[in-house]
Write a structure and sequence with these properties.
The protein is α/β, with parallel strands linked by helices and 221 residues long. It is 33% helix and 27% strand. This is Putative ABC transport system ATP-binding protein.
Length: 221
């Protein structure tokens, strides 16, 4: 099992009240599976994705990524899990404005301790696969929205993660570019036997996923 979330709850203290964002949710995603999480704003989608990617700890419940149980791990160990096992694609590409496109990818490898020729070859291969090899020496400001999202996909795949997590990856794109971006994620899932979860409001891309799960009022349905 690539991702296993069992009986996950998340609550916050808001003054005198306890606000429950997630309520006893469970989800398993296997290798080669692409799952979409849909639901209204405020339903807990982003919190769910943050917990799935070890960015946020649940109040109760268990989460396992790539065979590693996360509860009780130190902050340093969780950082390593995020670098080694999880690839994030955020709503905005979140590229570093002063780094060339190729260097955006090499930075991820360097953070994980992977330097040298192998990392450079991996970056070049990903850029070529995603049609960005001619843009390798460009800065983000010169790229279109679709190109930036493709860079974000390449960056997410740089360390060969077990699971890909995408948060509204089509939000800033038109229908055609959005569909292409999600299609690229779907192809990567199948080609390299990854697991992926995408939070989305965009029903136009749901034909590309294997399973759709709805979240409402903190419950998975």
């Amino acid at each position: 099992m690539t991702l296993s979330m069992k009986n996950i709850s998340k609550s916050y203290q808001d003054g005198d009240q306890i606000v429950e964002v997630l309520k006893n949710v469970s989800l398993e995603v296997v290798q080669g599976e692409f799952v979409a999480i849909v639901g209204p704003s405020g339903s807990g989608k982003s919190t769910f994705l943050s917990i799935a990617g070890a960015l946020l700890s649940p109040t109760t419940g268990e989460i396992e990524i790539g065979g590693t149980e996360l509860s009780g791990l130190s902050g340093k160990a969780l950082t390593k899990i995020r670098l080694d096992k999880v690839g994030f694609i955020f709503q905005g590409a979140n590229l570093i404005p002063y780094l060339h496109i190729r260097d955006q990818l090499l930075l991820i490898a360097e953070l994980a301790g992977n330097r040298g020729g192998q990392a450079r070859q991996k970056a070049d291969r990903l850029l070529k696969e995603l049609g960005l090899n001619s843009r390798a020496r460009n800065y983000p400001e010169s790229l279109s929205g679709g190109e930036k999202q493709r860079v974000a996909i390449a960056r997410a795949l740089m360390n060969n993660p077990d699971i890909i997590l995408a948060d509204e990856p089509t939000a800033s794109l038109d229908a055609s570019r959005g569909h292409k971006v999600v299609q690229m994620i779907a192809e990567e899932v199948k080609r390299n036997n990854k697991a992926a979860i995408m939070v989305t409001h965009d029903e136009r891309v749901l034909d590309l996923v294997d399973r759709v799960v709805r979240i409402e009022d903190g419950y998975l349905k």
